[in-house]
Specification:
Elements lengths: L6 H18 L3 H7 L7 H6 L18 H14 L1 H21 L2 H12 L5 E4 L15 E5 L2 E12 L6 E7 L9 E7 L5 E6 L10 E12 L3 E2 L5 H37 L1 E2 L2 E2 L4 H29 L5 H27 L9 H9 L9 H14 L1
Parallel strand pairs: 1-4
Antiparallel strand pairs: 2-3, 3-7, 4-5, 5-8, 6-7, 9-10
The chain binds flavin-adenine dinucleotide (FAD).
Length: 381
């Protein structure tokens, strides 16, 4: 058992940390305050290969292993969670399923522009009436000759207005329930594809989230992802892997908030000494550091299992996502507490971390759903 990152993984950590410090940090407060998407960071992210981590080199990507990918997402989230989620989504829930379930033609056509960062990608499963219960989606895809006609609406989709390529999950045969659902690759320039207005979010304000409506949207049948009827499998298999990215995001946010808390605790004085010398503050710091370390180990282990194609990866992903997101929420709460009133100010980064972290227990399967997934897999063993 080796608990160290290998040389390549350490280099990636340093490279992404340098980029995050030099390019991402300077505008982070302003972008959040203005709710402005990270457009200006995309060329730099593309240049480092971070928009094509999931795609192999033959498709123009950097073909990183999952541990490196988790490290990269963690480092971005340590500075800016909006940047981390934008990167995680185009890799983990768009390129990854195309790579896994797409045919050669689809990979050749859609992966290179995504991997090079010319297009951003997304994944559209959730609907206004169906989130946790994915099999309850209503968006229809009706076969008409060599096309499918999509009608319906998706909700809460990341990378919409900035993105071009979306993996869309829709019902092809309502009579077959979970087996009547299929996946499609749909580009935003397809007639009948409309982005809805952006959501006004609590956090991740420099990322883009909105609904999508499909009105007689004609998608070529050749864009179907895998066989008809395997759409739910495509969605669930995708999430089993991408949850590692959410765990990494939560670890990064927690680390960022924790570092701010340590810094503040050394300079803020009460009763004649820095607050880090008060035992109650030390307890909060020690508990936070311990929780982050545990979450990081679980996240890297889930990623290593994915790389090793070992058994138990889905369970490990759910456990890492559940644990990391829950402890990250607590670490950010403690970081605000350690800042006192300053933690309540929008001028201090911990206020943003506190808002940004909240969604990590919700998206890509809530904590309640992770517990269900974990319990089911335990009971099956
Ligand atoms: C910022 C943001 C970005 C997102 N990006 C995407 C995206 O790119 N693509 C995409 O498809 N979706 C995306 N989502 C949607 C996200 O995945 C869903 O919000 C999530 O799956 C939960 O679904 P829901 O909001 O409908 O909650 P619901 O399913 O309505 O759940 C509400 C509450 O009930 C609980 N609950 C539900 N069922 C059970 C049960 N059986 N047992 C116990 N408790 C239960 C839930 O845990 C939750 O607490 C995003 C959401 C947000 C906020």
């Amino acid at each position: 058992m080796d608990f160290e990152l290998n040389e390549d993984q350490q280099m990636i950590r340093q490279m992404v940390r340098d980029f995050a410090e030099e390019k991402v940090r300077p505008g982070v407060l302003k972008r959040d305050e203005e709710g402005r998407f990270i457009t200006e960071l995309l060329p730099g992210l593309a240049e480092l290969g971070l928009l094509g981590m999931a795609s192999p080199e033959q498709y123009g990507g950097s073909g990183l292993d999952m541990v490196s990918t988790a490290v990269a997402i963690e480092e971005l989230a340590r500075v800016c969670a909006s940047t981390a989620v934008t990167v995680a989504v185009t890799n983990g829930v768009c390129q990854e399923p195309i790579l896994r379930f797409g045919n050669d033609e689809q990979k050749k056509k859609f992966l290179p522009p995504l991997a090079k960062g010319e297009h951003l990608g997304g994944f559209a499963l959730t609907e206004p009436g169906a989130g946790s219960d994915a099999a309850a989606i209503k968006t229809r895809a009706v076969r008409q000759g060599d096309h499918y006609i999509l009608d319906g609406a998706k909700a809460w989709i990341t990378n919409t207005h900035a993105g071009k390529v979306f993996v869309v999950i829709a019902v092809t045969d309502p009579g077959k329930g979970a087996k009547g659902i299929s996946g499609f690759i749909v580009t935003s320039d397809t007639p009948g594809f409309h982005f809805l207005p952006e959501e006004k979010k609590m956090g991740l304000r420099a990322s883009v989230t909105s609904g999508i409506s499909f009105e007689e949207c004609r998608v070529p049948a050749e864009n179907r992802l895998g066989e008809e009827g395997i759409g739910l499998k495509v969605a669930l298999a995708t999430l089993e892997v991408s949850r590692i990215g959410i765990a990494a995001q939560a670890v990064g946010i927690a680390q960022g908030a924790f570092e701010e808390a340590v810094k503040h605790s050394k300079v803020r004085e009460t009763f004649g000494r820095p607050i880090c010398e008060h035992e109650a503050v030390q307890v909060m710091l020690a508990e936070s550091a311990t929780a982050i370390e545990g979450a990081r180990l679980m996240t890297y282990r889930a990623a290593a299992l994915k790389d090793a194609k070992g058994p138990g990866q889905a369970q490990a992903s759910s456990m890492a996502k559940l644990f990391a997101s829950e402890i990250a929420k607590d670490v950010c709460d403690k970081a605000v507490q350690i800042h006192g009133a300053y933690g309540y100010s929008r001028e201090y980064p911990v206020e943003r971390f506190y808002r940004d972290v909240r969604v990590t227990t919700i998206y890509e399967g809530t904590s309640e759903i992770q517990r269900m997934v974990i319990a089911r897999s335990l009971l099956k063993e």
